[in-house]
From TrEMBL:
Family under the similarity heading: Belongs to the IspD/TarI cytidylyltransferase family. IspD subfamily.
Site positions (Positions MEP for the nucleophilic attack): R154, K210
GO terms, biological process: isopentenyl diphosphate biosynthetic process, methylerythritol 4-phosphate pathway
PROSITE patterns reported in the protein's UniProt record: ISPD
Protein name from the UniProt record: 2-C-methyl-D-erythritol 4-phosphate cytidylyltransferase
Species, as recorded: Pseudoalteromonas rubra
Site (Transition state stabilizer): R19, K26
MF GO annotations: 2-C-methyl-D-erythritol 4-phosphate cytidylyltransferase activity
Keyword Cytoplasm included in the entry's annotation: no
TM ranges: none
Pathways involved: Isoprenoid biosynthesis; isopentenyl diphosphate biosynthesis via DXP pathway; isopentenyl diphosphate from 1-deoxy-D-xylulose 5-phosphate: step 2/6
Length: 233
């Protein structure tokens, strides 16, 4: 009999939220009665394929241990300077019990739908290649600084979202290689691309927004209330 595929989740939550401009990290902003991070972990906890959640938080974070995460299989790991360092630290922390695959999801994306996560997992496992949720660019795209220099053809442009889902060893090697080369990477897929390996684009909902600025927070609060209304129907 085949051994079941093991999948762990990594939640990078060690950012300071500079673009939000608050005096505390945005993952601890409240939406309703829960923090953004609790909403995000609550979503991941509903994905049956995920056996363990690793949350990377800053060493000096005094908020995380105050959260009520009872009932969730969550481990705290120490984050790093950049998002990619936080993810790499989490992968190293699980090395002795390494899963087959890892699913990396931003703490700051609490609106992700469970169906999108399970679709990403299914498509990647079926094709046996890593992949990411992404959403096709919908607007006309300009290149320029103060003036538009060009309208960029958008037929093959996608906005990268999370989760991003890769075989554990592939992602570990790709992140280590990117770090050794001092490569600037903003998501897992960019490390895997640099390693010359395929990254499947799996279409996901564009309202899986990352809370980055105050207007994102207002929009996320509205969308979250719509999601809870839809659940209670
Ligand atoms: N050193 C870092 C930086 C970011 N993140 C996490 O990566 C996710 C996406 O990053 P981003 O939106 O850029 O968050 P911040 O770095 O907090 O925001 P900013 O860039 O505005 O400071 C967030 O969940 C954030 O907590 C992390 O774990 N470790
Ligand atoms: C991983 C990510 O959320 C994909 O959109 C994103 O790249 C995080 O970092 P950013 O600095 O906000 O681009």
């Amino acid at each position: 009999m085949n051994k079941p595929t093991t999948i762990a989740a990594v939640v990078p939550a060690a950012g300071v939220g500079a673009r939000m401009g608050l005096n505390h990290p945005k993952q601890y902003l409240k939406i309703g009665d829960k923090t953004v991070l609790e909403h995000t972990l609550g979503k991941l906890a509903q994905v049956p394929q995920l056996t363990k959640l690793y949350v990377a938080v800053s060493e000096t974070d005094g908020y995380f241990d105050e959260l009520d995460l009872s009932g969730l299989a969550v481990s705290r790991v120490t984050g790093g300077q950049e998002r990619s360092d936080s993810v790499l630290n989490a992968l190293l922390a699980m090395q002795s019990t390494a899963p087959d695959w890892v699913l990396v999801h931003d703490a700051a994306r609490p609106l992700v739908e469970i169906n999108d996560i399970t679709n990403l997992i299914e498509q990647c496992l079926t094709h046996q290649e890593g992949g990411i949720l992404a959403s096709k660019v919908k607007d006309t795209i300009k290149r320029g600084t103060s003036h538009s220099e060009e309208t960029v053809p958008r037929a093959t442009l996608w906005q990268a979202l999370t989760p991003q889902f890769f075989p554990y060893h592939q992602l570990l090697n790709a992140l280590q290689q990117a770090q050794q080369n001092n490569a600037q990477i903003t998501d897992e897929a960019s490390a895997v691309e640099l390693a010359g390996q395929p990254v499947r684009l799996v279409s996901g909902r564009s309202d899986n927004i990352k809370i980055t600025t105050p207007e994102d927070y207002a929009l996320a609060s509205f969308l979250m209330s719509q999601q809870s209304k839809a659940r209670s129907l």
